[in-house]
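Example 3.2
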Amino acid sequence: MASEEELFASVDALLNEEPHLPPPAERARLREAAGITQARLATALKTTTQSVKNWENGRSEPKPPRLDAYQRLLNGWAAKYPAHGAASAAVTAPAASSEATASEVETADAPQAPTVPARARPATRPTAASRRPAAKKIAQPTADPRFPHGPLAVLDGDGSAYGVDGIVLDCPATTVVELVEWTLRESGLGAAKLNRYGKDSDPLIVLTAAAAVKLGLPERLEGHEQRRSLRLPEDHPAVKQVAKAKWQLTQRGFGPWARIYRKAQGRERQCVQLAILSWDALDERSWPGVTDMEAADIARVLGVYATRVITPRGSTAVSGLELMTALRPPTKAVQDPATGNWVSGYNPGSLGTAPMDPAPPEATPEHPVVVNSGWKGGFLNEEAYQWVRSVDLLTDEECTLPFAVGLDLNTAFLAAAARLVVGLSAPDHFHTPKFNPKIPGSWLVDLSHIELDPRLPSPFTPDGTRPTGPAWYQTHTVAYAQELGYNVEPIEAYLRRETGAYLDPWHDRLKTAYVDTLADLGVTKDLDDRAFLAAMERPKDVDPALAAVLSAIKATVKGGVGKLRERPQGKHYKDGERWPALERPTWRPDIRAAVISKARVNMHRKLNNMVKMTGLYPLAVLSDCVVYPSPGESPLDFLPYAASGKPQPGGFRLGPTPGLAKLEGVQSMLWAVDLMEQGLNPARHIKGGDAVLDEGE
């Protein structure tokens, strides 16, 4: 950056006067009166033409030493070219405190996003170069004054870092190290902690392909490994520069999501998260269409997600898991009774700081607990439904119906996490225990004697078949057998004495994010069923950016739950070895099993109630999607309604709330029967999704 003396020398060639910064419109008038172009002024001030445009639009203010030089120039022009018909009113500039000028704020040609950053002015009028119409402003909480420019920025190749609310920061960095230091010292980026005992979110810088190349990084990562596993080699110049500057990389190395940090100084964290778009940091399945957007639009999508969910720290699966810890920090400050000093202690209701081995039936076959003990007693098989009714069980009346209609439950696994009691302590082993539906754990029970209607999937197995003998089940599955009126006599169990609703704050935050984002897309709770179905057809047309946020929220739910049982990765892994995921307290397959068990039981309960209310049986179920034969193309043609026109409780109901249903697809009934005859699940083809919860990266 040029020194103050050099800048003063440049502007003195134009004019010598004392500085006073006039209003934005007056700045443009004075420059035009002096016959100076924006480009020439930018050259004199050693900045960009876009920066000058932003100052004259009132969208941003220059930062010292440019601020003082610009004040000096404008004050001199004001003396030479007073406003026609009135004296030019000098406007005293705000005090240039370090807090007010922590970063030079510039505005992109982009719409407003969640919040107005502190010390930054929103756009007063669109520029001629605006690339899309202004989007609907979303009401959000007031920004933290420590982070005036929001949680993140998208850096483009010209040095413009696009943030939330349409602001643009002027980033002079040409290396990764300079970028990290600029981010921590000048950018004003970051986000406040989500829990009083937690930590502030580190700033996120998203790099476009052009920005990556400018910083000395390859535009693409190439190799034989899966894209998500690729990393820069340790001898790459960028990696060596990071190490030379005494910064560190996490064990993930320099990949699509790179964290660069130094040891915290007191309470001040020194960490920056990078995401490199051209390295496939944003998965198209979770963030549809986002990588093809303009930088300002990407900043808007990620900014809304960061404000409503969490600043992204990796894939949506990683972010979902990080959100759990951010909302339930493992430690808090406690006073040592012996010394009176404040020390770090366990935060009640959290999973603590130490990893915990699961019970053998809760583990995976390659887990050390299983391999080292020689466990042969079987495993929990709590997975989502993949069931198709036998064609032989279809009635003639069903086959004459013209349509197969798919209903998808909104974030069914999120709904299952609500008020879900899970274990917080290590499992204890019991023989012939009496079943207690209030104790979370794994139970070895024989449910093969329970005979249910074969036109419905069994609630006890993922494929919907009847159990053939004793098997391990999570508490909710066994409790449902009791609810159906059957006696259960556990043979043994692994139970946890300390329990709590660990996922409650996670559920509440994601539910609010999901419902609020749907509402911004015009899908609100006050819509009747017909209006709801019509509104659900339009989200991508209403606002593709918010539609992408909605997709990311849903992926965060499934990925976060799946991440609780992350399997080993890499072709060199050998059974019995520990893998990195096992070293975190959030490797908890028992919690994942509890969520899926409750979701599957909830689905079966609705299926059962639909039979009682309508006599209808499903054709197939895939995860959270169920397919019914229907006389019409709409679920309104077969869902149960009271005489008053209101939906009947207990069955499937339409609505935007998690756990309620929406129309997923309509096909010909003949098409569905043809798939079923081939042993294929119609729900998979209607929904186009998987039946398992993604275990993430």
